[in-house]
């Protein structure tokens, strides 16, 4: 797992040419504020090979945050992450590794009959009850998430995962009422607290797409305060002295800034954006889609672009995401070693200060 000594050793090795705020903290660990995502790409051997080289280029070049999920590319992303980290010229203790469970994964490729695969692999085996499923493809029930965690540990070839996310729990709101979703999250958090105590994960979190950036009236809204409260209850039930809920993941980029502009969370002094709420609650924030899945590369609006430092649109886009309050690391997916080096080089520039970032939205 990532350790304080390992990540600070990594920071010392790569901080010489980076701006002051490039490395940021998760508890006592130093993390690069540019991270690598592994969602993109077809489930092919050629893409596996490209990811292998890209992951090695990232962690050997100053990016020590790697994010994946068991369903990405039908488990291929996790497996190539594991191979690349094992072969890279860095210690495991220097790299912060995150993965997710929630969407039912296929194995290497899409089966001819996905429904039959889910039934045979998960329902008939007793891992899932059909009532746990939303859209026939998503579940957050404790037994399912625990099974997915075990598979992820095997896919990654590691003894411990630094951050394990419950993936897009808002998907369950299409199948059950919000109270039932919170109840299921609490039960799953209790299981994850037990896995923390067992040494299989260091922390856990919630990775979302819509839940934290839509208004409270939206069908997919989830209340972060309620989630934190459920995590505290889960920790207490599991016999832990404090919750190990440590992070959230939200989409955030220059074209999709709802996590900052939509005040959907009820704070102690009024409504707040999820970024501010998470920051004040002591949660780390990891931004997904930081380059808007390539849209940023086609150009940033002039009134924003002129405020950002960086030699390329990708660097300026990442520096926008890195400027938001409470953001620990901005994730960007790529299968190109050249592009990942370009992304990491965004860290040679300072992100916007708080006043300059606020001025973008005035």
Automatic annotation (TrEMBL):
Keywords: Oxidoreductase. Its EC number is 1.1.1.-. The keyword Oxidoreductase applies. Residues 35-214 form the NADP-dependent oxidoreductase domain. The keyword Oxidoreductase applies. It comes from the Archaea. One of its GO terms (molecular function) is oxidoreductase activity. PANTHER family: D-THREO-ALDOSE 1-DEHYDROGENASE, NADP-DEPENDENT OXIDOREDUCTASE DOMAIN-CONTAINING PROTEIN. This is Probable oxidoreductase (Aldo-keto reductase family protein). It comes from Halobacterium hubeiense.
């Amino acid at each position: 797992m990532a350790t304080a000594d390992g990540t600070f050793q990594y920071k010392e090795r790569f901080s010489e040419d980076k701006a002051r705020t490039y490395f940021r903290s998760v508890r006592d660990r130093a993390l690069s504020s540019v991270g690598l995502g592994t969602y993109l790409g077809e489930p092919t051997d050629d893409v596996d090979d490209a990811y292998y080289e890209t992951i090695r280029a990232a962690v050997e070049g100053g990016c020590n945050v790697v994010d994946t999920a068991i369903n990405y590319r039908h488990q291929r992303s996790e497996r190539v992450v594991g191979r690349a980290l094992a072969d890279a010229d860095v210690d495991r203790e220097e790299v912060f590794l995150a993965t997710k469970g929630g969407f039912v994964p296929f194995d290497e490729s899409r089966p001819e009959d996905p429904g039959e695969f889910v039934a045979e692999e998960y329902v008939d085996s007793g891992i899932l009850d059909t009532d746990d499923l939303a859209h026939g493809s998503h579940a957050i029930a404790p037994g399912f998430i625990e099974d997915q965690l075990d598979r992820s540990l095997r896919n990654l070839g590691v003894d411990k995962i630094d951050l394990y996310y419950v993936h897009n729990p808002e998907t369950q709101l299409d199948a059950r009422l919000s109270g039932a979703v919170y109840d299921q999250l609490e039960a799953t958090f209790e299981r994850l607290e037990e896995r923390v105590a067992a040494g299989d994960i260091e922390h856990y979190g919630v990775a979302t797409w819509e839940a934290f950036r839509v208004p409270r009236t939206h069908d997919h809204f989830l209340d972060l305060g309620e989630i934190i409260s459920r995590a505290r209850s889960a920790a207490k039930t599991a016999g832990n002295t404090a919750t190990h809920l440590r992070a959230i993941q939200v989409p955030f980029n220059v074209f999709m800034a709802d996590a900052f502009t939509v005040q959907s969370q009820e704070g102690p002094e009024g409504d707040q954006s999820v970024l501010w709420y998470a920051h004040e609650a002591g949660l780390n924030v990891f931004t997904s889609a930081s380059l808007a899945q390539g849209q940023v590369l086609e150009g940033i609006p002039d009134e924003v672009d002129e405020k950002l430092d960086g030699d390329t649109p990708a660097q300026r886009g990442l520096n926008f995401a890195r400027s938001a309050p409470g953001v620990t690391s901005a994730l960007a997916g790529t299968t190109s070693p050249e592009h990942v080096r370009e992304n990491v080089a965004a860290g040679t520039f300072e992100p916007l200060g708080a006043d300059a970032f606020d001025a973008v939205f005035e």
